[in-house]
Write a structure and sequence with these properties.
The chain has 10 helices and 20 strands. By secondary structure, the chain is of the alpha+beta class. The protein binds adenosine-5'-diphosphate and magnesium ion (MG).
Length: about 375
């Protein structure tokens, strides 16, 4: 196994600059997820690491070796694509053997590695079938098996579960994670699905506009998002954002059109956390996750009156949408809490877990320091 280091990677397609100077390190044995919306440069970065695209700038190292301009075959990597790409006329066994036959491996080694991969992927009873006789999930297992048999230094996977239905995707998520742990294999896994990223990654690299926005463990990026993009992209439902300015020991929440302004007094948590926040004109954005708002008794210090606008009953939890200074704020509650529409409730924001962003720079004020 090996580490992967990408420095100042640039890739252009004619006018489009798909990757604009990406810096990334993946440690030996690490499961790294590239996460970001469609078009942000995930596939392009992965294809440069694989050697399927040649970069216009920057360097790529696998282990101690610089591979920036090397052929894919010289890189000791295995690529699992979104589509299953199996040979339809070959059996599962032949499909699994193919990458090893291609490099003239001894038959006994082929048999041993094919059996090992089949066991890990629970397809030992499917070895003599053709791909068309398999379900989508089984086909994708075979595709992953073809990557495993080669025992490469690095696995690269580009949205390998996106063609599967939701239930199977959730199952395979856990299987791939377990497989990677068992093999101890350095893996880069591309997805646009933040739940997939959170549940699988040792670390997540969040990309947007051809640039790395933040890399960190799932909890780091969830609890300390560096900027507004990361804050809004990670978490479901997304973090609530309310524009505001600071005046002394309170935040003046800027009202949406036609709504009344509101003022949120900073409690001792907020005063400590936002100690360096500029007062006065600087436009800020208050960021609060749905689980960091609680409904409390009227008159509780620090609570604000809010109006119930929409109630989403999700089975395991409810999402109550309330109006605050004309902005919709989503609040996560237990499934038994069912307020009526139009009702006034009192909401208290957990300031020790909230964020303030500079509207111009989009940076988290706490992360800026
Ligand atoms: P992602 O995988 O994150 O969805 P991609 O890396 O595929 O994003 O694409 C990044 C940008 O590069 C997009 O704007 C896309 O349209 C463009 N792009 C990707 N591949 C090509 C190509 N072969 N030719 C021209 N533009 C491309
Ligand atoms: Mg892609």
């Amino acid at each position: 196994m090996a580490s992967v280091r990408v420095q100042q990677l640039i890739k252009k397609y004619d006018q489009v600059v798909a990757v604009k100077g990406m810096d990334l390190s993946v440690e030996d044995g690490e499961f790294m997820v590239f996460l970001g919306p469609s078009g942000c440069g995930k596939t392009t970065t992965l294809r440069c690491i694989a050697g399927l695209e040649l970069p216009d700038g920057g360097t790529i190292k696998i282990g101690e070796e610089e591979v920036t301009h090397k052929q894919p075959a010289e890189r000791d990597i295995a690529f699992v694509f979104q589509s299953f790409s199996l040979y339809p006329h070959m059996t599962v066994r032949e499909n699994l053997s193919f990458p090893l036959r291609a490099v003239k491996t001894a038959q006994s080694v082929i048999d041993e590695r094919v059996m090992m991969a089949a066991r890990m992927l629970h397809i030992t009873d499917k070895l003599d079938r053709k791909p068309t006789q398999l379900s989508g999930g089984e086909q994708q297992r075979v595709t992953i098996g073809r990557a495993i048999v080669r025992r490469p230094q690095v696995f690269l996977m580009d949205e390998p579960l996106s063609a599967l239905d939701a239930k199977l995707r959730t199952e395979m998520r856990a299987e791939i994670k377990k497989l990677q742990t068992d093999l101890g294999a350095t893996t880069i896994y591309v997805t646009h699905d933040q739940l997939e990223a959170m549940s699988m990654g040792d670390r997540i690299a969040i990309m947007y506009g051809g640039l790395l926005q933040q890399a960190g463990t799932p909890m780091e990026v969830y609890d300390n998002p560096r900027n507004l993009f990361v804050a809004g992209f990670i978490g479901s439902p997304a973090m609530n954002f309310v524009p505001c300015t600071r005046s002394g020991d309170s935040l003046s929440l800027s009202p949406a059109e036609g709504a009344a302004a509101a003022s949120l007094g900073l409690d001792s948590d907020g005063k400590g956390r936002f100690a360096t926040t500029p007062t006065g004109d600087t436009s800020l954005v208050l960021g609060v996750r749905p689980e960091d708002v609680a409904f409390v008794e009227a008159g509780t210090p620090g609570s604000l009156p809010v109006r119930v606008e929409v109630v989403e009953l999700l089975g395991s939890e409810n999402i109550i949408n309330v109006g605050l200074a004309g902005h919709i704020v989503k609040v996560r509650t237990t499934p038994t809490f069912r307020p009526t529409l139009g009702q006034t409730l009192h909401a208290r924001i957990n300031q020790s877990r909230s964020h303030l962003f500079n509207k111009q720079t989009e940076l988290n004020i706490n992360a800026e320091r």
